[in-house]
Specification:
Layout lengths: L1 E4 L3 H12 L8 E6 L4 H17 L5 E6 L3 E2 L2 E2 L3 H4 L10 E3 L8 H6 L2 H13 L7 E8 L10 H5 L3 E2 L2 H13 L4 E6 L18 H11 L4 E4 L2 E2 L5 H6 L8 E7 L3 H6 L6 H12 L10 E8 L6 H13 L2 E8 L20 H25 L4 E7 L3 E3 L5 E2 L4 E3 L12 E6 L2
Parallel strand pairs: 1-2, 2-3, 3-6, 7-9, 9-10, 11-12, 12-13, 13-14
Antiparallel strand pairs: 4-5, 7-8, 15-16, 15-19, 16-17, 18-19
The structure holds iron/sulfur cluster (SF4).
Iron/sulfur cluster binds next to helix 6.
Length: 421
């Protein structure tokens, strides 16, 4: 079975689960985890699927999951209405739910021994050094931002139990994993009854529980809603076992646009969070690195609104930009903002995106300069590529092993390296 992932860490997590699940072990073909974040993202996996459909052998199929085949977290019954260009291939396509556990009965029919064999085999066939694992702690959302399709695909907000999450982390740590990246559709809402009930979030408690009950070296938080960053969380980001890289789901720096997006925070809250993060002093002295999801060209975005977004990057040192031009989603499912007046011209969107990305690169070089000569605890992945605590990519060209550092037990998975810009 070939596995192809489009989109986010949540897709990566569930693809790993499908790859380890016995359900597909007897099947041949291509597993695709699809993404609908923009029209461009949709056309990418549809094109890939069509290419593969032309080369499938007898008995092989396309197994499709991810946001493209989901509605409310389950298989989308209108899939072929939404993707009519795939109707002619429907006999070669099998739509799968988000999580293999949603098809539990099929697992039980498979003999226990084969399951154990498969899991052992899955671990053994791991090539190179695997130090990082994505773990979904929450799926779905209740916020309905006006540009978002994910909420339609993944359904309503629900959290996994902390017992479940900690058991999974302990298993990984036991098999040598060093870093866990917590992920989800709106992960900051973990433990809340609704993702809109910000005060009800128990996310800081979960982080503390993971630090107390596991020996995990590094815990990283993937994209986090600004509304969930409070003093408790800021305090936790000082902890050396929590990654010094904080990625925020910001989207815009303008109050007008944030309101029009139906975001659950305003510019004042946003600037408070960025100011606190930018000046945060960690116990290990490592400089915090900040990343952000940003959208340019949202309907009604004026040049002044765009300047409000751009200012966030240079003023608060945002180095990692996941920036997209607003997508009105004309193809397949639509989003409320796709029908808003004052749609921004594609040319202007492209110009603004380039300005933003160039500024991000300039700020990143400044951040790397500020880290020049510093020592880092590097987790090595694959062949000599690794990451520092604050998400600086390490290569033999820009890192040298600390001569005083002695690897324990032949494990080269982590070491102390000096960064040279
Ligand atoms: S918070 Fe908004 S953008 Fe994020 S998943 Fe929910 S609706 Fe979508």
């Amino acid at each position: 079975m070939e596995y192809k992932i489009f989109g986010c860490k949540t897709n990566k997590y569930f693809t790993d689960k499908w790859a380890e699940s016995p359900i597909l072990s007897w099947k041949e073909g291509v597993f695709i985890s699809s993404c609908v974040v923009t029209d461009k993202a949709k056309s990418k996996w549809v094109r890939f699927a069509k290419q593969k459909l032309k080369t499938l052998k007898k008995g092989e199929k396309i197994y499709l999951s991810g946001c493209g085949s989901l509605k409310e977290g389950d298989i989308d019954g209108d899939f072929y209405t939404i993707y009519p260009e795939l109707i002619e291939f429907r006999d070669q396509i099998e739509l799968l739910p988000e999580d293999p556990e949603d098809v539990k009965q099929e697992i039980e029919t498979i003999t226990k021994t084969s399951l154990k064999e498969r899991l052992q085999k899955a671990v053994i066939t791991g090539t190179g050094l695997h130090t990082k694992k994505f773990i979904v702690i929450q799926t779905g959302c209740d916020n309905f931002c006006t540009f978002c399709l994910t909420v339609q695909a993944r359904g309503r907000h629900k959290s996994r139990t902390s017992e479940d999450i900690i058991t999974e982390i302990k298993e990984f740590v036991a098999s040598g994993w060093k870093e866990v990246v917590l992920t989800g559709t709106n992960l900051g809402a973990w433990g809340a009854t609704s993702s809109e009930n910000i005060a009800d979030s128990k996310f800081p408690e979960l982080l503390r529980e993971i630090l107390e009950k596991t020996t995990l070296s590094r815990l990283r938080v993937s994209s986090l809603g600004v509304e969930f960053v409070d003093n408790e969380l800021l305090e936790l980001f000082k902890n050396p076992r929590i990654s010094a890289y904080v990625h925020l789901s910001i989207q815009s720096g303008s109050d007008n646009i944030l309101r029009s997006m139906n975001r659950h925070y305003n510019r004042t809250k946003l600037l408070q969070v960025l100011t606190s993060l930018y000046s945060l002093q960690r116990e290990d002295g490592v400089l915090i690195n900040i990343g952000a999801d940003l959208i340019v060209g949202f309907p009604g975005e004026t040049d002044a609104d765009f300047q409000d977004t751009l200012e966030l990057v240079w003023k608060y040192g945002i180095t990692q930009l996941h920036a997209f031009p607003f997508s009105a989603h004309h193809d397949h499912y639509s989003v409320p903002a796709g029908k808003f007046p004052n749609q921004v011209d594609e040319k202007i969107k492209t110009e603004r995106l380039n300005i933003l990305l160039n500024e991000g690169e300039r700020v990143k070089q400044g951040f790397l300069q500020a880290n020049d000569g510093k020592y880092f605890h590097v987790l090595v992945e694959g062949k000599w590529i690794g990451w520092t605590e604050n998400y600086i990519e390490c290569t033999p060209e820009n890192f040298e092993l600390d001569p005083g550092f002695v690897f324990e037990k032949k494990s080269i998975a982590e070491g102390i390296y000096r960064y040279k810009k």
